[in-house]
Amino acid sequence: MGRLFYFLKDYVLSSLMPLKPGYVFLVLLPLLSISCDKPSFNEDAFRTSTAEIDLDSIKKRGYINVIIDNNSLSYFIYKGEPMGYDYELLKLFAASIHVDLKLKISRGIGKSINKLNRGDADIMAFPLTITKERRKYIAFTRPHYNSYQVLVQRKPRNWRRLTQDQITDSLIRNPVDLIGKEIHLLRHSSFVPRLENLSEEIGGDILIKEDTVDAETESYIKRVSSGEINYTVADHTIAAVNAAYYPNIDVKTILSLPQQIAWGTRKNSPALLEALNTWLGLLKREPTFMVIYNRYYKSPRTYRMRMNSDYSSMGGNRLSRYDEWIKEGAKSLGWDWRLLAALIYQESRFEVDDESWAGAQGLMQLMPQTAKRFGATDANDPHQSILAGCKYLKYLDRYWTKKIENPTERIKFVLASYNAGLGHVLDAYRLAAKQGADSLHWENHVADFLLKKSDFREDEVVTAGFCKCEEPVNYVREVLVRYEQYKSHIPVE
């Protein structure tokens, strides 16, 4: 074959932290390198930073925009709750700089780099391999962890009846055997230059097929498992977790040396990068980091549970066992059912027996008198609770329709009234109008006067009494944030 390949295990395993895979092969090539003569980036397709947004601007506006990868480890919905390795870390970072977190799912590395650089986001929270080529366009945070690239291939059909040696003999372990093989890869991924370089090293062409920019690594792994394609390449971290769900794939053939995985920022946002690096450095000294890392990367059993669950955006695309009733209720309201689901999750986390300290009951946390008024004889019955709650929401919507014409704004008033009661929101509405604010808009206007209501307790327009009014303001924001999360993961139908 013209070259001598050495299959080494201990060298790679000693280089990877916190990864400790059990049975792997490393092909140590004489001139192994992530970079190669042929650039993987089309210079015309990528733009450098044009937006001038750094940490001070982010803090001033009160939120940080993040584009996040669409995979089952970074960010997903499980039983109504957003979860994911990158999501949990981002929440912690946003809290550390005292801003809200706004997430947008983005597919395709090249497209996402351009979104970052034109200011659509402040952080690109992908599991990005740090490469020299990418450094031309973005800055990298300090690494989260190390990984390496592996070949994803399918075991033979009768693999369950074969010994491990027989399975291994049927698979590609020597990269020379990739000559002439077609491998499907995500466009602009770091896998492309690695295989281009590998082709040079083994003296023959690997047939690289770069597919749509809107795909993601896990979709390629699924296609290998289903037999649609024969080979792809993935970072070991993602490949190993997916192998727990697709037992007919093999991910033990290593194609690269250890590589660093990090997030990206604009190159002209040095203060944000410094804040991220300082925060990551502190976090990695605490147990919290490894707890989060292990929850997603070291727990194949829970991964299989999530993937097999009907109530996961990774598999079933359902939010709860009550989705059909929620859709029925939302239709009567003229709402997107995912908005109603976000409200119900905020109220009860879909727990039918939940009861508040004040006596509110059921999925929609109706007070006994309200439940009875709107037709629920048993507030803990999920169907009755949803129907009665929707009738109450319809009542609130009819009331606010007389005052707030804009449906987007009106929903905020309805949500606040559902949480705090109509009287308190009316107080804030009247105060805003009296004090010269815009009583038709929620943020920075009526919401502000709801927060300041106690300062005007002697004003004649304030009639509903004391209110702990941070709660309804937070409630509106949290329901709408959750609604956006649901929209990004769960189809409307």
Please, could you describe this protein's structure?
The protein has 493 residues and is an alpha/beta fold. The protein is built from 20 helices and 14 strands. The strands form 4 sheets. Strands 2, 5, 6, 7, 8 and 14 form a 6-stranded mixed beta sheet that branches.
Instruction: Indicate the proportion of strand residues.
Output: 5-15%
Give the structural class: alpha/beta
Reported for the largest beta sheet, the result is:
6 strands, mixed
As a percent range, the share of helical residues equals 40-55%
Total helix count? 20
**Mean residue pLDDT:** 88
How many strands appear in the DSSP assignment?
14
Summarize this structure briefly.
The chain has 493 residues and is an alpha/beta fold.
Keywords:
alpha/beta, 4-stranded mixed beta sheet, 493 residues, 44% helix, 6-stranded mixed beta sheet, disordered N terminus, 14 strands, globular
Write the layout of secondary structure elements.
Blueprint: H1 10-15, E1 25-26, H2 55-61, E2 63-68, E3 76-78, E4 81-83, H3 85-96, E5 100-105, H4 109-117, E6 123-129, H5 132-135, E7 139-140, E8 145-147, E9 149-154, H6 164-169, E10 182-186, H7 191-202, E11 207-211, H8 217-226, E12 231-235, H9 236-245, E13 249-254, E14 259-265, H10 270-283, H11 287-297, H12 300-308, H13 323-333, H14 337-348, H15 368-373, H16 382-401, H17 407-420, H18 422-434, H19 442-451, H20 470-489
Parallel strand pairs: 1-13, 2-5, 2-6, 10-11
Antiparallel strand pairs: 3-4, 6-14, 7-14, 8-14, 9-12, 9-13
Helix pairs in contact: 9-12, 13-14, 13-16, 14-20, 16-17, 17-18, 17-20, 18-19
